[in-house]
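Query form — protein RING-type domain-containing protein

QUESTION: What is the three-dimensional structure of this chain?
INPUT:
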Amino acid sequence: MAHPEPPVHRCFSYMDSYNGDIRFDNVYISTYFCQIDERRRKLGKQTLLPLRKAEEKTVVFPFKPTIQAQEMKNLGKELLGMLPIALLLLLLCGLDWALYSVFDTIRQHSFQQYSFRSSHKLEVKVGGDSMLARLLRKTIGALNTSSDTVVESNNLPCLPQPVCMDARAYWRASLPIVLLVCLCLAQAFGYRLRRVIAAFYFPKREKKRVLFLYNDLLRKRAAFTKLRRTLIIRRAQQQRGPRHHLVDTLHHRCPLVRRWLRRRCVVCQAPETPESYVCPTPECDAVYCQSCWNDMKNLCPVCTPREELSSSAYSDSNDDLKYAE
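ANSWER: The structure tokens for RING-type domain-containing protein are given below.
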């Protein structure tokens, strides 16, 4: 049976990985990351914040009080580890309730009550007025008796007497599982604190890691717009297609469902807003959110020739894609 690693060994292992592998646990949008983005904004260069929905799933914002998509991976592993214990507890509680139901049914339907009643009367009559008759009446008359007997009995002592667990007993039984779930949820915030402690003791290494993360996200965003040009064109063609008259009717007359019937950005699929940009080219009408339109360098990849995109919009310079320390 494998024994868990001691906490001290885990600390040194994390420190070695933190200093040795620049990609290890490098998913946090720290304050220095925001400062880099703000400097680039002032210089008029391409920025990353706010991140796209797809990008938010790969990073962690340390100051958010909620558990984020990147942290759900580790949380899922922890919850999966305690799943057998929870299933065992559920099985035991279900078995307890089933046994109680069986024995209670037996007690209710097997109960029998017996009632026995008897009565008798003994009377001897001696006739005559002789002395012997009078003597016999006095002697035998004492034997004259009468009685009524009633005997009631049941089989209750032989029947099972099950006791149902109350809500407090079930709560006490499930309390350790609830505490384990709470610890699993709190562990995500412990991982954030672990990175903060490492950054405090290795500030130069932390800056290099943040710079690497920023540059890596810049490269991925540039590659994203290049590789998904075909998908962008297909989405724009779907938007240009005629919509069903029922959809148009709901869009104009039902404000409650209008938000689900709005057109979406052909890049990130964000709903159309008043700030969205609609391509003015005839028969194009592609919709872009403001951030995606900036990423496209104000050129629509749907109606712009590929040669022009290759020479301007998609060919970011190295100075624009990297942030020098």
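ADDITIONAL NOTE: The CA atoms of residues 215 and 322 lie 5 Å apart.
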